[in-house]
Every structure is written in C-alpha cells, then in structure tokens.
Amino acid sequence: MKLYSEKRFIRKLRNRDPHAFELLVRRYEVPVYNLVFRMLGNREEAEDLAQEIFVKIFKKIDSFRGDSSLSTWIYRVASNMCKNRQQYLGRRYHNRPSKIGLEESSLGDEQSFRTTGRVSRPDELVEGYQMEQLIQTAISELDEEHRLILILRDIQGISYEEIASIVGLPLGTVKSRLHRARMSLKEKIGPQLR
C-alpha cells in the first residue's frame, strides 16, 4: 500500500469499517497463515491462531503507532502470538517437537508458498514433495528465533530492515542469525542429499 492510502486504510480500520477489515484479512491471511504454520507445524493450531491474530489486530488497531508499516506491525503481532502459543504448547505437550506432515505442507497452490517448483512428471513431483518434507522438517527443528527469521526472510521474502523491526533486533543481529539458521539448515539437509 502507498503511504497515503495506508494511512487512510488504517483510519478506516480504526473506525471499525467491516469492509476495511475484510480487505485486511484478504491481503494478509495467506502470509500470516504460512508464518504461523511454519512456526507451529500444525495445521489446526495454525488455522486457530491465524484467526486469533486477526481478531487481535482488529481489537488493537488503535495501538498501532505508525512507527513502521502496517505489514511490519501485523507480522510483529503474529510472531509474538506464535511465540506465546509455542510456549503454551511446549508446556501442554512437554516440549514434544511437532513435525509437519507431508499432507499438511500447504493450503493449496494459490494459497501457500511451496518449496518445490511446478513439475509435470510424476517422479519429479514425488521427489519435489519429498524435498519439501525434508526442508519443512529441518526448518521445524531450528530454534524459535532462527526459524522465525529464516521464515520471514527466505519464505515470506521480507526485507532485512523490516525483519529487524518485527523481531526488535539490530540489523546485524538479524543477518547473523539468518546466516546461522541457513548453515544449520544446510547441515541438517546436506547429508540427506548425497
């Protein structure tokens, strides 16, 4: 959104305009769901939390100060709620790591980022799904801070500067954590590719 239209849009959200809220959900539902799903690794939890995130955004839009873009604020709300949910689930399930199942790897072609490209041959399709599962599992095994930064940068495509604002860390720290996350991912996946 352009700065002027974003300000007007935020004003409509603050006035509780249902059409503005509907537009907000349509614009951000897929990126928010994908972030939450990759952080939690469970479709049902991700769907529930994504809905809770939008309710919270709607209720708390008055607290948006405008220090960052609306999208940055939305990702900050989503990432904080993911951390809270992970802590809750960790206590509830005694820190059992959740693994992303192959059948849960996406919402569908139009709604989710896929780690595989479009392929036409069945053997390539199966190989792509296996690679996606391998990557998803390796991402889910990263520690929370590295996983969040990796997802925001390499999957969501968010700039380093915006990530720094979302997670509240200096730019250099974001870059070094992303580097460590990528190296860890490479170590987890590399041996299985040989």
Question: Would you give an account of this structure?
Answer:
With 194 residues, this protein is mainly α. It has 2 domains: 1-98, Orthogonal Bundle (Rna Polymerase Sigma Factor, Chain: A); 119-194, Winged helix-like DNA-binding domain superfamily/Winged helix DNA-binding domain (Arc Repressor Mutant, subunit A, Orthogonal Bundle), CATH 1.10.10.10. Helices cover 71% and strands 0% of the residues. It contains 8 helices and no strands. It is globular, with a radius of gyration of 18 Å. The termini are far apart.
What's the structural blueprint in terms of helices and strands?
Blueprint: H1 3-14, H2 18-40, H3 43-60, H4 70-92, H5 122-140, H6 144-155, H7 160-167, H8 171-193
Portion of residues in beta strands equals under 5%
Please write the string of helix (H) and strand (E) elements: HHHHHHHH
User: C-alpha Rg, in Å?
Assistant: 18 Å
Helix count, DSSP H or I runs of 4 or more residues: 8
| Main sheet record | none
Portion of residues in helices?
Answer: over 70%
CATH top level of the largest domain is: Mainly Alpha
What is the molecular shape? Answer: globular
Which CATH architecture of the largest domain would you pick? Orthogonal Bundle
Arithmetic mean of pLDDT: 82
- Structural class call reads mainly alpha
CATH superfamily of the largest domain: RNA polymerase sigma factor, region 2, helix turn helix motif
Q: How many discrete domains?
A: 2
The count of strands amounts to: 0
Distance between the termini: 44 Å
What CATH calls the topology of the largest domain is Rna Polymerase Sigma Factor, Chain: A
